[in-house]
Structures are given as C-alpha cells and as structure tokens.
Amino acid sequence: MRADRAVRDLAVALAVALMLPTASRAQGLFERLGLDRLRFGGLSLDYGTVQPVNIIRTRSYALQADYGELANHVRVLFGVAYWRSRYTDAVVNGFVQQLQHSITDPTGDDTIHADKVRVSDVSLEGEMRWTPASRRAFARPYLGGGLGMHFVSAQSKLIDNTFIGRSLNDIALGVSAVAGVELAPWRQVGLGVEARYALLPGVTYGTVRAVFTYHFVADDAERRP
Fold first, then answer.
1. Burial of 91 by CB count in 10 Å (0-12 exposed, 13-18 middle, 19+ buried)?
2. Integer Cα distance of 97 and 95 in angstroms
3. CATH hierarchy code of domain 38-222
4. Distant-in-sequence, close-in-space partners of 145: CB < 8 Å, separation ≥ 6
5. Which of 101, 143, 176, 210 is deepest in the core (most CB within 10 A)?
6. How far apart are the first and last CA of the chain?
C-alpha cells in the first residue's frame, strides 16, 4: 500500500511539474498577443433589417459583448445574431419548374405543388474593430471584420427528406465586414447605426442595424497600463 501511495504521489508530482511550464508558456503567449488585456466591458442590443440574396427581407436581432481593446484603437467583440424568413416565390417557382422539366411523365398527370421554403440563421461570431476616434469622443466611427459559425436551417414540404433540404440545413463558417458609428450622448451609453455584410456558403446577406450599447466600464477607467 505504501509503495502504491508513493507511486501515485510521484505521478501527481510529475504531472504538476509538467503542467507548470505549459501554463507559464500559455500565459506568456496570451501576454504577447495582448489577450490578457481583454475584459468584459459593454453589452449591445442590435435591431434592424436583413436582406439575404434570393430571400425576402426580414428583421434581424443581435446581442454583442464588448471585451475592450486588444491593441490601440482595436477592439474585440463577441456576439450572437438571429433572423428568419423565406425564399422568394420566384426562386421557389423556378425550382419547381426545373423539377417538372426533369421528370419523365408519359401520362402527363404528375404534379409538383410549390410550398414556401422557410430559412433561418443563428450566428456566433467574433469580431475585431478599428476605432480611430478617442473613447471620450462624442462620435466614434468604426470599421471591422468578423469570423463566425452559422447554423442555417431550411424547412418546407417541398425539400424535406431530400438532398437539397440536407444541403440547405448546414453549419457553416462565415466571414463578415462591418462599418458604423456610435454616438455617446451619456457617459456610459452609446447609440449607433451600422451596416454589415456576411458571406457564407449558400447564403449571403446585408444588414442595417440600430445599436444600443451600455458600457459597464467607464471610458477613462478602461485603459490599463
């Protein structure tokens, strides 16, 4: 028993000894990349319209968390967004016509009934923004880009249990570009508008949003040495 306990204690000691340099290297990497500076400091509620290609325009909702500056004038945000709509009738009818032309029907009595194809997108995205103005400025323009995962879902009797339906229901990596401006009428409150464009396999769309932001960390207290 004593021998078993000694072996176990030695194994634990070795594991700790091996983990300490790894943790130290990871901490050093975080410091070199500036990731140790990131702190949750603000929350944004976004509402607007989204216009996907071949899909009817609809409303968009988003929630974003501001984690502060990674470098001078470069901010990091993480967010989730959602919209739901359907493909245009022209797109669906064109698809039905192509199916009818590809079917061999000697009797001429086969019919294909068009059905609305509803589609939704839930995205989880990380974003970096360049903000040239001072955080104390009243108007704060920004440009940025993001990378995220999109959970796209399409539902319709026309495509359910088909390879087309399976291809439209997808988890895809997408990129986005954003430009906007935030106004600061009060110390920790921001009101703004932004335009963004997202590109992912099968679906591309542009969005215009109104943005309400509450900064939990005051601007003058945000900067750290």
1. middle
2. 5
3. 2.40.160.20
4. 127, 128, 175, 176, 177, 178
5. 176
6. 54
What DSSP character marks residue 31? H
Structure confidence at residue 68 as a pLDDT band (50, 70, 90): confident
pLDDT tens digits along 28-65: 444 544 556 778 889 999 999 999 988 999 999 999 99
What CA–CA distance (Å, rounded) separates 143 from 154?
Answer: 32
Q: What's the alpha-carbon Rg for the chain, to the nearest Å?
A: 25
In tens, the pLDDT along 105-136 reads 555 555 666 677 888 999 999 999 999 988 78
The pTM for the full model equals: 0.72
| Tokens coding 50 | 């989204």
144-168 residue pLDDT tens? 999 999 998 877 766 666 666 666 6
DSSP class of residue 160? T
Token pair listed for 124:
């989880």
Look at phi and psi of residue 96 and say left if phi exceeds 0, alpha if psi is from -120 to 50, else beta.
alpha
pLDDT at 71: 84
